[in-house]
């Protein structure tokens, strides 16, 4: 998809604002099994109000409604939520040091399991592609890997130590069982399993490898899984790439290399970044704005560079905590959530001159 | 939490005389440093029955405002270099400002340069929104902050 077409102007159209949470909304997740002809899009959101809300768009009115409020389970802020790849389970991570697993039983969401073990706030949770593993991370500096067993049982497979500070987010590679974590210690770590089934840190991306100079808040992969983008309190986005064929052949020595740094575009902390399947990078920041970046065809001298496609100022009234592209059929639909307590649904539209 | 006071003998200063504020409705609506200072000067120190102003932890010069951009920067000076109450004072400032100013103001809180042995580490913690939120959910810490903000002892 060529975004350099000079005839195209992009604008971010606001489709709807979802209100209901009574405190800041930290994160949201689109149910990956929805957004098709048979299933209307569904979003889960989580908040400082200790609840998780499930939102669904009505087939009839095309309007979003809140279908469920998952409350009285977490006793503190719910910091992040993520659906399993099949869309059947929802995992929620909380400052109460637990991770809850929810299942939709005939329209009713029930908490079917609670994962305990972290010493303090759980910040993020991620399912691997085959749904056989779950990972969680915490201010206790560790990353836990859990095996998903039959009957909604979860067994701790490994406790990964290595980060020297609060781990902000973890994300499984989209196709391989390689885990990525980013931290308040300014580094990104890559974890993989060896032949004996032990998990190790196979790479640490720090300042000396062109890494970030402050807290790294989020990681996102491109559709092909050969590139990732990270965002930071150092006001930059960084793009990394790796030899995907090497990784597929099981080579754990494959390293991620710095490709590009996008600086000068943000003047406050960038909390979230998400790479769309078409290659548009969206960022959400503490200046209340959402920005979009695409690869620029202009310079191929030192490798691809990226340019700003669009900046939406005042996307929210307060900090934007999360941006997530919809995985559904509709193209260029995105959701964001904010300290202002709302979730907004957007469409990135073009108007050719 | 140590049992003894971190700084048992702080230097206490007289309170600065309060200047009468403009009551005229046509007064400039822009927020200036003194507006902010008025809200924070009487916050009580976590360890001593004195205000942050009296202990010279804060002064009017500690505050800079960019009203157009909606940005506030507060720097404060802990009474001693190894003050472990620095993060508590920072939290008090943040909570107080959240209550007094519209949410679109972005607030940065730092220890004044050279005033603390772990300056960078303290500043990083004070400006990490997630860490601040988690800290304020800790009932003991929240109680301490509330005592500093709502104490009627002055």
Automatic annotation (TrEMBL), chain A:
HAMAP family in the record: ciao1
GO biological process: iron-sulfur cluster assembly
CDD domains: WD40 (cd00200)
Top-level taxon of the source organism: Eukaryota
Species classification: Eukaryota, Viridiplantae, Streptophyta, Embryophyta, Tracheophyta
GO cellular component, one term: cytosolic [4Fe-4S] assembly targeting complex
A Pfam entry, by short name: WD40
Family: Belongs to the WD repeat CIA1 family.
Role, per record: Essential component of the cytosolic iron-sulfur (Fe/S) protein assembly machinery. Required for the maturation of extramitochondrial Fe/S proteins.
The entry's keywords: Repeat, WD repeat
PROSITE patterns for the chain: WD_REPEATS_1, WD_REPEATS_2, WD_REPEATS_REGION
Name of the protein in its database record: Probable cytosolic iron-sulfur protein assembly protein CIAO1 homolog
WD repeat locations: 18-56, 71-103, 115-148, 160-191, 209-241, 313-353
Keyword Lyase among UniProt keywords: no
TrEMBL record, chain B:
SUPFAM superfamilies associated with the record: Fe-S cluster assembly (FSCA) domain-like (SSF117916)
One Pfam family linked to the record: FeS_assembly_P
Record domain MIP18 family-like: where: 35-97
One GO BP annotation of this record: protein maturation
Transmembrane segments: none
Family to which the UniProt record says this protein belongs: Belongs to the MIP18 family.
Protein known as: MIP18 family-like domain-containing protein
Record organism: Linum tenue
